[in-house]
Amino acid sequence: MALIILGIVLFIGFVFVFLLLMPRPSAAGALLHQVTRPVRLHTELPAWRTALNVDRFARPFTLVRSLFSPEPNAQLVRRLYLAGYRKPAHADIFLGSRLALPAAMGLIIALYVESNTIIFFAIAVALGFFIPDFWLSRAINKRRDKIKLSLPDGLDFLAICLEAGLGLDQGIVRLGQELRISHPALSEELLQINFEQRAGVPRITAWKAFSDRVDLESVRSFVAMLIQTDRFGTAISKSLGTFSDALRTQRRQLAEEMAAKTTVKMVLPLVLFIFPAVGIVVVGPPFISITRHLANFMKCTFSFTTRRKRPSCPFASPSPTQFWAGSLACSAEGL
């Protein structure tokens, strides 16, 4: 009972603090909203996207985090960069989820679990604390796989743009715009390179930052090739075509490797689930027939043996040949 009351109090306190620290619109913000309204009418977002403003949602978590540290953890910020979340508010939301999710799961356990409450409460709190880390690791791997699979197609398109007469920077911008629907992760990274160059960052520095954000061996090789061609002035279109062919070959080899591994991975399911079912279907009916046949055979054998031992039987005792023939006939009639 005490755990239930404690969980309810913690949940109510968390909601109260969250509502108390929610930002309120100021006069300057209202004026800016009114001034920029004609521009925003052309790119109006859906209602749910407007309601889920990241900065507004993260403001309470930012204030709580500022009490302990002026800046979020650099390693956490880098991991969020690798997953595609670049705003500073994303780190605060992640830290807030580490606090809110254990409290919510602990409250649910305290309300609905009656036996062994303390053990399940501790397990729920631990899982709620580590679930965001598991999700972030999965998001990083998923984004890397998407970029790795979309890079050969992007390099082919970039080579076509360069052969058509566009410069490298214009080709990267065009590539980012064209891949926005089919490969959004790669498009976002390429447009980020353009934004950094427009902000005054040197080209080589922007490319190196791109390889650090993605953290893939193929992307690092691509950036190294761009740096070498930029320094030595070699033709980049042929280099891009050769590099994209190598990446496509590597992707095909990876697919063949994964296909070859399926035979080994299917051994355990086959042994545990498929073979027992097939064995029951194939061997089951003959086993049942043989069991019935042996039961009838033993029954007839017992009856013939009993008849031979009767002293009042008027008939002569059957010979061994007649005995086994009669037993087999009897068992056959039983089937």
Any key phrases for this structure?
15 helices; 335 residues
Give an overview in words.
The chain has helices at 2-20, 27-35, 37-40, 47-51, 54-66, 74-83, 88-112, 117-163, 168-178, 184-198, 203-214, 217-232, 236-265, 267-308, 320-334. The radius of gyration is 37 Å and the shape is flat. The chain is mainly α. Residues 19-24, 38-51 and 310-317 have low confidence and may be disordered. It is built from 15 helices and no strands. Among the domains are: 2-21 and 51-112, no CATH class; 145-262. 18% of the residues are buried.
Q: Helix segment count? A: 15
Structural class of the helix and strand makeup? mainly alpha
Which residues form runs of ≥5 with pLDDT under 50? 19-24, 38-51, 310-317
Distance between termini? 67 Å
Shape: flat
User: Rounded to an integer, what's the Rg over CA atoms?
Assistant: 37 Å
What proportion of the residues form beta strands (DSSP E)? Answer: under 5%
Mean pLDDT: 75
Element pattern in H and E: HHHHHHHHHHHHHHH
Number of strands: 0
What share of the residues lie within helices? over 70%
User: Oligomeric status of the shown chains?
Assistant: single chain
Major beta-sheet overview = none
Describe the protein's topology.
Blueprint lengths: L1 H19 L6 H9 L1 H4 L6 H5 L2 H13 L7 H10 L4 H25 L4 H47 L4 H11 L5 H15 L4 H12 L2 H16 L3 H30 L1 H42 L11 H15 L1
Helix pairs in contact: 1-7, 5-7, 6-8, 7-8, 8-9, 8-13, 9-10, 10-11, 11-12, 12-13, 14-15
Question: Summed up, what is this model?
Answer:
The chain has 335 residues and is an all-alpha fold. The protein has helices at residues 2-20, 27-35, 37-40, 47-51, 54-66, 74-83, 88-112, 117-163, 168-178, 184-198, 203-214, 217-232, 236-265, 267-308, 320-334.
